[in-house]
Amino acid sequence: MVEHEQERPLASEAHQISIPNDTVTQRSTEEETERKRLRRRCVQCCGCTSAVLVILGVTLLILFLTVFKVKDPKINLNNVTIRGLEGVDPRNLVPSTNLTLIAEVSVKNPNIASFRYKNATTEIYYENVLIGEAQIPKGNAKARKTIQMTVTANFLLEKIIRVSQLPADLTAGTLALDTKTSIRGRVEIIEIVKKTVGVKLNCTSTVVIADQTVRDQKCTKSVKF
To answer: Per the record, where are the segments of Basic and acidic residues compositional bias (predicted)?
Structure first.
């Protein structure tokens, strides 16, 4: 028997999908456009964030230089009165004479936060001799408010009568007094700005004994942070 070689069928060729070039180009263009759009949006977002931060920084700087800036508390000596001279011959003062000086002091706080101050003192001098001292109790001057205080000091007569200028001043009916007030406190603005402030007020004034008026008052102030 003659064997016939059977023809084997050729393997079928793999199916190939052909994508048109114009479709590939269109897809690449769309992807590139999308990338550019995202990049532009990112740049815009970063620009907006930077602008907000700059505006916020400038605003805070302006606030710290203006509103949040700690301003000097102002202390004023408004009036001085001497009590105890009624029925007493000023030229014949003795150490047992009870003379009292009453000073009206005001503290003005120009800040947007309270000024809390500690116990303070007012010293009274006559011809550079300490003749009295008044205590100012601790307190709180509210924001942009002025508080009035009355401080009292007893004269140290044993020191006054030793001043050689006293007879001439009493004859003239005037006393030249120096007062020194020192107050130390703290200003705290929304727990961000905290400043300790020390204020000293030195005043010279002439007290007219007859009517208890004060004239020729001159004050100098120093502030220390």
So the answer is: 1-10
